[in-house]
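tool_call: predict_structure(chain=1)
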Amino acid sequence: MSNLLPLVLSVDPQGEMLDAARACEADVFLETYGNTAEEWEEEYGAYESSSIFIALAEQGGDVLGAARLLLPSSAGFKSLDDTSRPPWNVDGYRAAEAAGVDLSRTFDFATIGVRRGLEGAARFASAAMFHAISKVALANDLPNAVMIMDEHARALVTAIGGTTHVLPGTHTAPYLGSPASTPLWSNVPQMLDNQRRLYPDAYRLITLGIGLDGISLPAQADYVLSRRFAEPVLESA
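tool_result:
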């Protein structure tokens, strides 16, 4: 990888870039949690139409990091659907509503992964993608996030001021190859305010993007998604 050329952060890429983002996601989750392509198709097939990706790529198109968000749609949210199954058996939608989450203004923070051994500007791959996720949330009036997060990843997010809350009635348990994951929710504006006050260095880097040198960030207008889904989110029966 050349350090002379900037990396490119893309929101909702299409075509070859989207294919490369999916490949990065698949590679990282296979290496980290042992999730196969067949398993991934079974897990996410029902949510493909509501999935958008954020990708950090080299100029040549190789994706070094990718995140998947699920937008509000009639497909529902995978994290809340999975919460209703073992090992939790808790109605995820009712749990989120009990926590005060407006599901019509919510996204599912489904996956995030970066390739190992990154150097130079690519070391900031995770920071760049979290920057884009927060920008997408604010630009599209999606202040709430739901997720099922591995506890190691959650500890890293907490260390940079990422405030998350356990969904009512749930607990930490094995999930899709992770030995310990927890159903969570978060309010993005509250999280960013907490980060600004208590983790100012992380706020400057991740939220403001100051210091993401060598990474070409999207223009503000590019964070506004052209395909917000108008269909209602499935509610609990």
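agent: The chain has a mean pLDDT of 93. Proceeding to next step.
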